[in-house]
Every structure is written in structure tokens, then in C-alpha cells.
Write a structure and sequence with these properties.
The protein has helices at 3-28, 32-45, 51-91, 96-121. With 124 residues, the chain is mainly alpha-helical. It has one domain (3-24, 51-121): F1FO ATP Synthase, CATH 1.20.20. The relative contact order is 0.13.
Length: 124
């Protein structure tokens, strides 16, 4: 597969991870009576992971995955576009300023990935 297909697969996986983390978070909200029952069970169970820690782990994994995919995708795009921009600027120097716009758009992918990561971080 070409690299852009892999990036689409990784983006879908990142969205799935974020959705899973959100659903785990909504499932983690329980009533006070259920929390007391879980606390009583924990004393004798030993080694069980609570729903809150599972939610935190899922959200942290989603944050890491979304950040990594957006930065890798942006790096690939900037590499390809930057090389093409410098090649075009070598032949026609007046194209350099126009081609830098596309490099900035590719950098925007990393910024958006960072923004999504910060939104997910607010849920932890």
C-alpha cells in the first residue's frame, strides 16, 4: 500500500481509539451505591483495575496515538511538499512564496492533531 493509504488507516484507528476511550469514560460513571459495592469488592479481590483507571489508560492511549499519527502524517506531507517546493523554486524563484503556503497547510495537520490531543486530555 502507498503511504497515504496507511495514513488513512491510522487516522481511522485513531478515531476508533478516541471513540473507545469516550465510551469507556461514559461506562465508568456509576452511582454512589455501585461505587461503594465496587470498593467493598476490591478489598477482597486484590489486583483488580477500577473503571476510572481503565478510562484513564484508554484516554492516554488515544492521546498518544492521535498525536503520533498527526505528527507522522504532517512530517510525511511536509517532506514531500517541501522537496517539490524547492524543486519548483530552483526552476522559477517566484514560485517559492506560493509553494510555502502548501507547506504551512501540511504543518496545520500537526497543530490540529495537537488540538485534538488537548481536548482528549481535558477528559482525563
Amino acid at each position: 500500500m502507498k503511504w497515504h493509504r496507511w495514513m488513512m488507516v491510522l487516522a481511522v484507528a485513531a478515531l476508533w481509539a478516541a471513540g473507545t476511550a469516550a465510551s469507556v469514560g461514559s461506562a465508568a460513571e456509576t452511582s454512589a451505591g455501585e461505587q461503594a459495592a465496587v470498593a467493598g469488592d476490591k478489598a477482597g479481590a486484590g489486583g483488580q483495575v477500577s473503571a476510572d483507571s481503565t478510562r484513564t489508560i484508554a484516554l492516554a492511549s488515544a492521546i498518544a496515538f492521535v498525536t503520533a499519527v498527526s505528527i507522522l502524517g504532517s512530517a510525511l506531507a511536509v517532506g514531500k511538499i517541501g522537496a517539490a517546493a524547492l524543486g519548483a523554486a530552483a526552476e522559477k524563484p517566484e514560485l517559492l512564496t506560493r509553494s510555502l503556503l502548501f507547506v504551512a497547510l501540511a504543518e496545520g495537520l500537526a497543530v490540529l492533531g495537537f488540538a485534538v490531543a488537548m481536548l482528549l486530555m481535558a477528559k482525563i
